[in-house]
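Run log // design_07
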């Protein structure tokens, strides 16, 4: 059984009990946050029903992402720049520079637990967003908004917190556990510790965590070649991209 939701990606039912949400909606057009002069629209649906985990697995394999209890996917008029990508965990081999980054952060301690928000996290989040994404919607988030982003979930969500030897929080990664991998929902870090390359380190840690858990993929969200904020994901190879006929290995020259 398959159902087509625009952009040429058929949703194929391949889970015993998973069901597609009854209703999908489209957001109103708004300015694209990644590519100037373009318009953004998303398809979205609420994650609920009898087998939420199975439904989420199904939709994640078809390019959907999660925010709170909503799943969404770009459906922008005349644009397909947002490409869902995932790292092939078992075949991933870090570059020399990536190995250097891992060594530079060997002294960090990772704490993995349920998705509970704290004021300590929020303060780090504010510094990160106001430095890196001051022109985005997240820059205006208050603590209630932040807590909703972290804690409002209907699936298996975890929070990884990274601390230095003095116990100071330096990075946070919100993670969803899927049937075939871990999904990086959102991460942020101390922007004043550039020497640690904490953004890259968080992804390297997540890929390794997927490997430890025996999961074949690490989902990184959307890769946008023309966006500096998103193009970095191409460094984590081998990388697969979702194409109209399914997931395909990306080729980089």
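design_07 sequence
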């Amino acid at each position: 059984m398959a159902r087509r939701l625009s952009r040429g990606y058929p949703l194929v039912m391949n889970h015993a009990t998973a069901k597609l949400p009854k209703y999908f909606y489209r957001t109103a057009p708004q300015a694209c946050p990644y590519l100037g002069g373009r318009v953004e629209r998303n398809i979205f649906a609420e994650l609920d029903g009898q087998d939420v985990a199975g439904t989420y697995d199904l939709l994640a394999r078809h390019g959907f992402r999660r925010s709170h209890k909503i799943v969404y996917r770009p459906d922008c008029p005349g644009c397909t720049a947002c490409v869902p990508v995932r790292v092939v965990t078992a075949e991933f081999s870090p570059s020399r520079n990536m190995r250097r980054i891992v060594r530079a952060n060997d002294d960090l301690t990772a704490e993995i637990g349920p998705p509970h928000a704290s004021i300590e996290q929020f303060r780090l989040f504010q510094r990160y967003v106001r430095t890196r994404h001051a022109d985005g919607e997240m820059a205006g988030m208050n603590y209630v908004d932040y807590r909703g982003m972290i804690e409002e979930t209907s699936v298996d969500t975890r929070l990884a917190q990274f601390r230095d030897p003095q116990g100071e929080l330096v990075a946070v990664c919100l993670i969803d556990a899927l049937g075939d991998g871990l999904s990086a929902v959102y991460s942020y870090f101390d922007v004043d510790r550039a020497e640690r390359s904490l953004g890259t380190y968080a992804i390297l840690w997540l890929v390794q965590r997927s490997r430890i858990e025996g999961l074949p993929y690490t989902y990184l969200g959307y890769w946008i070649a023309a966006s500096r904020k998103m193009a970095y994901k191409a460094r984590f190879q081998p990388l697969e991209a979702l194409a109209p006929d399914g997931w395909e290995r990306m080729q980089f020259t």
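The chain is about 25% helix and 30% strand.
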